[in-house]
Specification:
globular, 5-stranded parallel beta sheet, 7 strands, alpha/beta, Rossmann fold
Length: 246
């Protein structure tokens, strides 16, 4: 009897999918072609996925932070990213859909890709917990969710580490960084923007800090500084995309 019920439910689910694909097929965010059943990233056809430009390796990304800090040490032990925001990559279309078009699943799917990217990398073998870069409460009210949390959930699906979603809080509203240049981004972001709640949860922890885009590293640096000052042992950064290095 149970097998019969399960079979009926499977048939209904398959029928529902066929119906939804017929009345509202999913199209690629980049090329607008209809996505197939085996798409790796939601709203991204596999052809466009495989054509994405890879981000520079983590050493180059970390060196870019050093150069902006004029030789000072970075609070981040490493920084890794998947795709590069080149002029013809169109990754920004996916990031826009993730942040403003309620497509949180894009973040989750890319999170799984990031999880697979670091799963066998010894740099990340000591990770204790995953912390998404927090949004200010006002921004959450605008978007209804934090895109970095969904990226973190995708990573967790692969590396099976605990997510701490409330230990790091954004207490100052810094506004959008989208239209700011490098120096403006740095001055717009400081350690006082964030605070740590429940310090015991991060004490001596190796943390994977998750965000959507790495541009200058100012946001990740501010978060990492706060976490280290409150007892974390080290902080590694990871993002879906990185801006071209200058």
């Amino acid at each position: 009897m149970l097998n019969y019920v399960e079979s009926c439910l499977n048939v209904l689910e398959a029928g529902k999918k066929i119906y939804l694909d017929f009345i509202s097929p999913i199209h690629c965010q980049i090329c607008n072609s209809q996505c197939g059943d085996n798409q790796i990233i939601f709203r991204l056809c596999n052809q466009c996925f495989y054509s994405l430009d890879y981000s520079p390796d983590k050493e180059h990304l970390l060196n870019s932070i050093y150069s902006k800090k004029k030789g000072d040490d970075s609070a981040l032990s490493s920084i890794s990213s998947y795709a590069e925001l080149t002029s013809d990559s169109n990754v920004e279309l996916l990031i826009y859909a993730l942040k403003y078009d309620y497509c949180s699943r894009i973040g989750f799917d890319f999170g799984k890709i990031l999880g697979m990217k670091i799963a066998n990398d010894s740099t990340y073998s000591t990770i204790d917990l995953i912390v998404p870069v927090p949004l200010h409460a006002a921004r959450i009210r605008e978007r209804t969710y934090n895109q970095s949390l969904y990226i973190a959930k995708g990573i967790q699906e692969i590396i099976h580490k605990r997510i701490e979603n409330t230990c790091l809080q954004r207490i100052m509203y810094s506004g959008s960084q989208t239209l700011l240049n490098v120096s403006e981004r740095s001055s717009n972001m400081s350690d006082t923007i964030f605070k740590v709640n429940n310090k015991d949860r991060i004490h001596n922890a190796s943390i994977l800090l998750v965000d959507d885009i790495f541009t200058t590293g100012a946001t990740l640096e501010a978060c990492a500084n706060t976490l280290l000052l409150e007892g974390a042992s080290c902080v590694h950064g990871i993002t879906i995309a990185s801006a071209p290095l200058r």
